[in-house]
Every structure is written in structure tokens, then in C-alpha cells.
Amino acid sequence: MARHPDTLGSSSLSDSTAESISDLLMWDFPSQKSGITEYHDLPTKEALDSDLETFVREVLQNANDQGLANNDPVNVTFEFQQIDDVDKFLDTFNWDNRDALPENLRWHIQQANKNKKTRDAGLKRFLNHFDEEELLILTIHDENTTGLYGSEDNSSSPYGALVKDFGSSEKPSSSSGGSFGLGKTVLWAFSGISTVLFNSTPMNALDDHEPPRLVGRSILPSHEHEDGVDTYTNHGWFGLDDEEARSRLGRLPSIWQDQGPVEEVAETLGVGRGDRGTGTSIGVIGFRIPGEDLNPDPEELADDFRHAAVKHFWPAISRGDLNVSVKTPEGDEEVATLDDAPGVRPFQEAYERLFQPVGSKLEKPGDFAKTEVKLTVPEENDEVVDDPDPSYETSVDVVLRQLNPADSNALEESEDSDIGPNHVARLRGAQMIVDYLDKGNVADRGKNFAAVLAAGEAQTPEGEVPTDEQLAVEKFLKRSEPTQHDDWVGSKNEYLKKHYSGTIVREVNGLAGERLERELADVVREEVESGDEVPNMDDVAPIMQGRSTEGPGGGSVMEWEKEPSTSFDGECWKFAGSGGPKEDHNGWELKIRLDRIDAEESQSEVIPISSITPDPTNATVSYQKKGIKLIMDSTVDEIEFEGQSDEVLNPGEDYSEALEVGDLTEVRLDVSAEVETGDEE
């Protein structure tokens, strides 16, 4: 990865130039007369709960998605800078040096702190502790990316998506990371003054302008002028003082090099790019971790940044598609390698075998095996999508590695609670790990494994064109990702429901639940020969018999508003119920499973449950070896649930292959409850 000189050198603004640029650039918060309540909500409010890993994930995802199609890697440098000349920075930044108070950012922050409806405690803490002598900036430089091209009023461009319009997402390929476009708000959430600067050299300049392009944006609670007349919205802009553009756009525009000394201004403000070429440098002013110390130690944070980068982007890093480094104020720059997150090595080694011939069973430590999980992508909704895709019957790939002692040691060295033996790392074409699923319930004794589930364009060998099925899976899963891109979600996902017609929840859940676990078990476990004869389909009638609602001491502890019941729709079992504990509680659990009952009225087999939807949604769903567990805390007194099994009758399928059991005459839904009361020690 290329090394670059310190950007706060002699090319920054002279004192005279700083004074003149102060008249060229200004802060502006559009005002309106409708009162403070209309604009009091903050787009950053959810991001304020983000941790450092989420910040690194979102930043790298945005940069990686904007890589140029030239087979060269995207380079990202996290540079921590302690500003040497804080006075010159603040003057150039129009902190509090303008005669008109509303043209100073400090004044807006002070007024915003008076809005009690959306007060960000971090803003007040920053003002109380900022002595104007020290200022930490985190600058994120990306190279070999598209940069922020696009006109001031074009939302369907990188400039519009990253800087202008929250909630939009304009990514250059179908495999880009996520559809909701809100993850970028972490940039502002990690700024002590909720303010971010952008200096970009875009691949396409605008209207013959000369790059670079500079703009700043602040997101504060809406606030009122001291005169009580004007109310300011929560979106402030640092840009060119151009009254015509301001009138047309309703805000200030960005400034280009041909309109003023942008390169020098950028150097002074800590976002200079030097010779980095196309791409963007993003300055997070007053870097902080929400809810933590306002003055974090960059030397300590450097290790955490590299670790988070490798943990979530090792597929792109190991393929040579992404380089990440961290630079501290002392001038040290270190490149992120697999050594920064040793727990990912077994997963990375499994991933390397994705396109190589391997067996279908794990036999000994160090072995690799491959399987697939079936997936039906629903057809796209023709009322929403132009030229909609049909439904596709396809699958995703899973590669497993049986852990050897070295692998186990690597996982033991990992401090990540979500990485360990018998986990599955899931990814699609964005080459970012979506999550690590714990599937220890399928591991045989002594057969611990690490697995990678590759879906969509991640299933396409490098240099080849994705199939229609792979493209369809990519779109389907991309649309299923929440704001932080850390899961594939089907339940309560209105965005998916809007774009698809058909079974959604079952297909998404199948890539995390029983469907995935069955395929893993087939690879990991020894085969058991049953010898049972399979009945003729005409001899079997789907019947529900009985239920069980018991606490640890026996007897019913539940009050059922709708007693648990099942029905059969010709392909799978469906079940539902609603109720809650009879007594006060400190939390409770429901264990739900479906059992096949043989001719001797004994349990013969557990029927896999493919999906369950609880209401309220804050109940934790845990897929168990035999069924599903719902976990409720003390705030939940009643829950309603509905779910379904995997398909047991598929059109044209050989029934003997579907059941693989002896004489069956009925099916039982078993629901057991465990309630923690105040009397328990």
C-alpha cells in the first residue's frame, strides 16, 4: 500500500489566505418559520448507539462499494491527527469568527443544546471541555474509488447519497453493501460536534470544474434564534458563499478548486489528499466514541481499527481487493493483516476452498468439505420493479473446515465473543462478513468446525460473470439487510415485502436456521443407518394431537389467550399461539417443537421449524437442536407467535425421501414454558 507524507505540512494556508477564505466559505443552517417541532428529529439518533466495530464496518463498506472497475485494490487509510495550529483551523472553519452569529458553527451548537427534545449530551460535553488548544480529527482517505461526483441537486450520485440525502443509497453495483443508506450517519455520530468535512477528487468533474471539491455538513438538533423569530433546521452546510446557488438549492453548494484555494483549505482543515488520486478524504471533527471518553487515545484505537477491519472484511483483504491501514499522530502507519484478528484464519482458509474440489464429509482435523443450502428467491413485484425477475430455485454454498489444534489456538486467541468454534461466517458479493452464526448444536463430539456461507455474487469465481440466479440472490439478500448490514432479515421487513411476491420470511430464515443446520449436520455427523421402512403416502394423515405447557416444577404456568395449535397446508406444518405467564416474572422462555408420532404413539422424529415470527419483536429467537426457544425479558408479559416447519411434501418429490421414518399417524406441537419469578434465588 502506498505511503503518503503528513498532509498538515507547509502547503496549508498562510495567515493572509486564511483571512480571505473566511469570506469565501461560510456555515449556513436553513431557517424556517414553522416552529421547532417540525424538524426536531435527528437522522443520527440510531447511530449514536453504535460501537467502534460498526463505525469501521460502515466506513469500509462505503469505500469498498465505490471502488473503480480497474482490478486495482481500494486503499483506505484511517489517519488520526492532532491539529497543531488550532486557531488557524477554527478561523478557516468559521467556528466563531464571523460578525453575524448565525454564520458561526459554535453559536449553532450552543443554540441546539437548548432543544431539550433531542439534546445530544455529547454536544454539550464537547463545548464544556473544548479549550480551543487541542483538537483530534479522524480523517478517512480512500483511493482508487469513484469520489463524490454528481451535481448539487442529484440524489442518484455518490455526492447526493453520502453528503446530501440521508436514507438514499447509490452504489455502483448490485453487490454493494445494503439498501437503506442510513449507515453513513455513523460519521456524524462519532464527531463530538456532529460535523463532517468532505474533500474529494471525483472521477468525473462537474461542469468543467477543477477538483478537488470541498463541502462540510453538520447535523444538530433544530434550534431557535435568540430573537425568537427564526428557527433553524437540523442540517447545516459549510460551503461556498453563493447567494444565487443558496436561493436555488435552499442551502450552500460545495466549492471547487477553480472557485477558491480548496487544496490549501483542505490541508488546513485536516482533509488534504496530497497525491492520492481519485477518491475522498472524510474528516470527522472532534472524533469521539459515543457515550465514552471525549479524548480517546489514537495509539490505543489503532489496534481496534485494524482488528475490526480484518474481522469484517477479511474476504476482500485476502483477495487483494482492499487494503486498510491506520496512521497515528506520531506518524506510525500500520497495514491491517490477518494477524490483527487471528480468529478469522480458519474461516479464511475455508473460503479459499470455495472454488476448489473438496469432499462432502469431514473425517479428520484439517479436512475441508462443501455443501449447499437450497433457496427459493421469490419473484419480484411487477408493481414496484421495472422488468421484474421471476422466482428462482437455487442454492447458496457452504464450505467447512474441521478445526485442528492450530485453528483452535487461533480461535482461543480471539477476544471476539461472536467468533469461535462451530461458527458460520456469512457473506455475499460485497465481500463483507454479514455475521458469524453460532451453530455449536450441530457439531459432533470432537468435530469442531469453521464454515463460510457464500451467497449471490460471492458464489461467482473471480473473473466470471454471475448467473441470473446469483444476481437474484444478491439482490434479495441485499434488500434484506438492516441499516447496519449485520444480518439478513425477513420478518417484519416491509422493504422486502414491497419488492417481492411470495414466501419471504421462510427463505431468509432458512439461511440461518434449521435448513442451514441440517446441511451442516450432514457434513459433520456420522451417518446412522435406520433400517426403518417408510410408509406409503396414502397411509399417513396429518393430525395434530396435544400440547404441553409446563414449568420446571410441573403444572401449567401459562395463561393462553390463543392455545397453541397446528394446521397442515399441503406442504408444511403451521402453528400459532398467544399467551403469557400467570404470575409476575423476571423473564420467561417458551420452547417450541414439532414431533412426529409413530404407530406406537411414541416420538419418532423432530420436524425442523423453518421460521417463527414473534410479536413483540424484541423477543430473542434461538434456534435449538430440537425446535425453537423464545426468550422474553421482564418487560414482556404476553407474546403472540406463528411459524411453520420446513416443507414435508413437495410437488413431485419422492415421499420416502421426504420423511425417512417409520409408520406415522400424527404430529404433536409441544410448547413448554419456564418462568423466572421473584421468589427464585
Cα radius of gyration in angstroms: 28 Å
Mean pLDDT: 82
How much helical structure, as a percent, in the residues?
10-25%
Structural class: alpha+beta
**What distance lies between the first and last C-alpha atoms, to the nearest angstrom?**
58 Å
The percent range for strand residues is: 25-35%
User: How many DSSP helices?
Assistant: 17
Number of distinct beta strands: 29
Largest sheet: 10 strands, mixed
Number of domains: 3
Poorly predicted ranges (pLDDT <50, ≥5 residues)? 1-13, 36-40, 167-182, 528-555, 598-602, 650-665
Q: Give the overall silhouette.
A: globular
Give your account of this protein's structure.
- By secondary structure, the protein is an alpha+beta fold.
- It folds into three domains: 30-334, no CATH class; 343-524, no CATH class; 537-675, Immunoglobulin-like (Sandwich), CATH 2.60.40.
- It has 17 helices and 29 strands.
- The strands form six sheets. Strands 1, 3, 4, 5, 6, 9, 10, 11, 12 and 13 form a ten-stranded mixed sheet that branches.
- The chain is globular.
Task: Provide tags for this entry.
Immunoglobulin-like, five-stranded mixed β-sheet, 681 residues, 22% helix, alpha+beta, 26% strand
Topology, please?
Elements: H1 15-24, E1 25-28, E2 31-32, H2 52-65, E3 74-82, H3 86-92, H4 105-112, H5 121-129, E4 136-143, H6 158-164, H7 186-189, E5 195-201, E6 213-219, E7 223-224, E8 231-232, E9 235-240, H8 243-249, E10 255-256, H9 262-268, E11 279-285, H10 298-318, E12 322-327, E13 333-335, H11 345-352, E14 368-377, E15 379-380, E16 392-402, H12 405-413, E17 423-427, E18 433-438, E19 449-454, H13 468-480, H14 494-499, E20 500-501, H15 505-510, H16 514-524, E21 558-568, E22 573-581, E23 588-598, E24 603-607, E25 609-615, E26 620-624, E27 627-632, E28 639-645, H17 655-659, E29 664-675
Parallel strand pairs: 3-12, 17-19
Antiparallel strand pairs: 1-9, 2-8, 3-4, 4-11, 5-6, 5-11, 6-9, 6-10, 7-8, 12-13, 14-16, 15-20, 16-19, 17-18, 21-22, 22-28, 23-24, 23-27, 23-29, 25-28, 26-27
Helix pairs in contact: 2-10
